[in-house]
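User: My notes are a mess, but here's the protein and adenosine-5'-triphosphate's SMILES. Can you give me a structure?
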Amino acid sequence: MSNLLEIKNLRKSYGDKVVLQDVSFNVPSGAIVGFIGNNGAGKSTTFKAVLELIHKESGTVKLFGKENLNKEVKLKEKIGVVFDAINLPSNLTIKQLGKVFVKVFDSWDQNEFERLVDIFALPRNKKVGSFSRGMSMKISIAVALSHNAQLLILDEATGGLDPSSREMVLDELGNFVKKDGCGIVLSSHIMSDIERIATHLVIINEGKITLNEEKDKVFEKYAFVDLDNDQLTLLNQDIIIAQRKHGALFTVLVSDKEKLPSGIVAQTITMEEISVFLTGSE
Ligand SMILES: Nc1ncnc2c1ncn2[C@@H]1O[C@H](COP(=O)(O)OP(=O)(O)OP(=O)(O)O)[C@@H](O)[C@H]1O
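Assistant: No problem, the inputs look usable. Here's the predicted complex:
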């Protein structure tokens, strides 16, 4: 499986504040990477650095195997981007947008755009600037899906969508990634969305990656255990992902419940629990 995006040791500071420290993860072809973290953890900053909208301090970013996106103009067309804030021309209608984008993108697919506008039930003759937040997200997603991109970078793209719209969008994302050589990285605070569609989980906490793993592996092998100090010393250090102290006991997230000493009871994990544990917001 080749990587559409490779991020290695990415670092970024604003003034004295280090907001990304040694961030590394990949988006393989065929994958949907769920990028999870609290408000201010560094998700948007990572995306902006990947897209070269901001300068990174150090580290490398490779898109389709190549560095320096700004010098590889053709590559940009292969990336569909949706940011939380709408950045489409507000004075145009959807009808007019189609006419603009056919000129902007060599590979603009007007039929696909029309299909998505229909299934997202978006009005064709209303100015985009007057759209609700949910409608704005849907039109941004429709655009990102209509220029034959291979990689989608979606920052909070399902936030603000009603449940039936979310279903439709998640279905479309699932279909997108089935196409040859396509992949998605999406940040979200909606754990049920991540649990439903992600193939890989990347968790970031205060600019540091605390988990980077295939989702199925997390649910098959990972577990929480409650231990006292003596039991903790018996634990194979290699399987400890994170631990928290609660009075005299420790709650430990382990990466392989098969390697637990006998007598220690593994508790099953939920997406919500693992994300709360690793984002430190408990
Ligand atoms: N232009 C900027 N100048 C100074 N600090 C910034 C700037 N942009 C982001 N930051 C800081 O960088 C940190 C990471 O912000 P970022 O927007 O990447 O978080 P996030 O994980 O996307 O959060 P959210 O879930 O709220 O969207 C925060 O502490 C934020 O205040």
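The mean pLDDT is 92.
User: Great, I'll file this with my notes.
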